[in-house]
Amino acid sequence: MTKRLVVQLARFGDIVQSKRLILSLRREGDVHLCVDRSLAALARLVYPDCVIHALPAHGCDARTVLEEGRAVFEHLRSEHFAEVYALNNAGLCKAVASLFPPEVVRGYPVRGGQALRCRWIRMAFRWMAERRRSPLNLADFWASLAPVPISPALVNPPAVPGGKGLGIVLAGQVRRRSPSPDALALLTRIQAEKLGRAGKCPVYLLGTSKEHSAARDLMARLPGTVVERCLDLTGKTDWAALQDILAGLDVLLSPDTGTAHLAAHLGVPVLGLFCSSAWVWETGPYGVGHTVLQADLPCAPCAESSPCPKNAPCRAAFTDPALLAYLAGRGKTERRFPRHVRILHGTFDEMGQTWREEGGDSPDHDAPLRKALRDQLAEYLGLGTTHGSDAAAALYRETDWILPPIRP
Amino acid sequence: MEQHLRILVVLPLYGGSLPIGRYCASALGELGHMVDVFEAPAFHEAHAALRGLRVAEDRMEQLENSFVNLLGQAIYARVEHFEPDLVLALAQAPMSRQLLQRLRREGVPSAMWFVEDYRVFSYWRVFAPLYDFFFVIQKEPFLSLLKEAGVPHAMYLPLAALPGFHRKVELTPEQRREYGADLSFLGAGYPNRRVAFRTLLRRDFKIWGSDWEGDELLAPRVQRRGARISAEESVLVYNAAKINLNLHSSLEADKLVSGGDFVNPRTFELAAMGAFQLVDRRELMPELFRLDGDDAELSVFSSPEEMEAAIDFYLAHPEAREEIARRSRERVLAEHTYQQRMEALLGFIRSLRPDWPCPRAEHGWPEGMSGGMQEELTSLLTRLGLPNSASFDEVIARLRNQSGELESLEAGLLFLDEWRKQYS
After folding, report:
1. Chain centre to alpha carbon of residue B408
2. ipTM of predicted assembly, 2 dp
3. Partner of A215 at 20 to 30 A CA spacing, among A7, A305, B320, B396?
């Protein structure tokens, strides 16, 4: 049986978002997955059919990195992988890629000490220069490194309410990517009251121990009828417990987090709250049955590494009364939509995840070029032919047609 | 031929279109045109060195962009020096957008022969509109897509053979031992070929060419561990096999015979050599070769089963092989040579630009030359491969492309050319 290795040394959400690639490769043979050791248990939960290699990559001391890392590398070398998928634009991933002949490495191969980017990765850097027009979900981007990606519909189960209550993810890794406390409280209340109509549904507050204070703060802003249904699980769930809690929820209210991607993996409907640098067209939860509220100010999506000169007004965009009315179930009859928040529902085309906007008073001026770029990528991947657009010029450079390619 | 043209042929750095570029240059020279070749492959190693620098990827991409721009400048410098009537580029030639825009601004006609599958190399959309003339090996819908993309002057130009190169060769006993086989295939290890050839392992079968790594079943059949085979050596390989398999490439392993449209160069090359081939049926093949009847010029198959049956038949009937090979050779020599393709290419340009090429301010031969000097000139023209009607400027251009020490007459002509630049 042919063996392939996927090197995914980024965080929680990235491991789950590698799923379409991993399932595509799994169809062709055995798949090994190399992840940071803190995420190995998660990887085993999500990919029970894969061999997981736990590499000390983050949050450990230099001696561990060297000694335990070397042992992992020795093991990886001995496996003689037919193909290696190096997925991260990071030195750690490239160091792992350097274990293997560049001919077998897809993504970021290293040849003679020179780290390279294959053509597909180079193209991605070009379209990422204009993120508002990002044409492809990250999961589909990685999956497209596989010779034949599986159908997007086979990745995650369609999301349907499971009857077990409401989940609230309190913060992502970066607080700026989460709604303001007021906005989160309003949205939580609306969701809890909607679900509460059908009976007493629990409200699970999810996060790490760092989010204890955020949980307390949220409960302080909620009415007593909701607080009494809240279970503060911040810092109390390991990966298995988190999966158990998520499975069967009616809906998970979350910023762009790994937990949201895990919920999508389980078929739990996600109501995504995307703001700041989070951009639904890049990292929206994968599958059908999810909805994302995308804060869309003219500055979106921003780079979270730079401080926001306006104190992140996008975090408060979710308090727009029209949005709250919509979420409470009144928006559809009143036909009013929020000004700076787009309401998007997950769907598929043959390339993978895409988003259908519901209503909206402000036209998405980037949609035509996003679509043109997507069509051009489909043509590149052999999935169709485009007609009369200038998108090709944004994706291709002379080096593509003049210099020897770095596959694929 | 109506007029001797100056044509700059720009070769790619690497790849399958490189030998085709060389065949075009040869054919144009044989047609009497003055050909200058931009030898991009000479820069290939420089690029390989660049890719081995061990620098950050962003920096690498900047350097590669600069490298491409440098090649563009080098080509432009040749254009300034050679003053061609046409710049003819092959697919993957280092023609940057900036260079193409500059050529257009300055009225230097440019043409590309895109000898690639447009479905696989979709970047044609970016550069095709920047060429004045675009030649392709596929018809519809590609021609319509080109028009839609802003390429008004596109023409179907199928591949061909160069009879002086793709010829019958008498092999030595050693060569026959090395290259000979009942079945032979020369080409890259595309997925469909890897699967299709698995059924041939019990036969006397040799595989030549690269990109066959990772296939343990076929590995014993792959010659020289998958080393690249030069165009010169390919002639020996083709001449040595009883049956040359010619299966067009496809990335789809589950569709072994892809049934695509264009006909690959191998079809014409094998035919020109009088080498027998079994080739998969292609949409555009019937207008190039007779495929059916007693006077068929090619033996084609549409499925792996048909291929196997044909192998059995033709191994048992050498006279049938010879007969078909003879007919396919006659057809190629009559209709499918690079000389004919280049005539068609130039004819297309002439039909669209009746005033092409721009008249030059030609320098004539000095008046009143002695009979002895005229005789010397005639023999010089013969030596340079130029007709007696060649102009003074054509001879000068040809001399400037010569390497090594010049004869006294040659140096005298160059001296006269410089003298005229200084005083006329």
Report:
1. 36
2. 0.78
3. A305
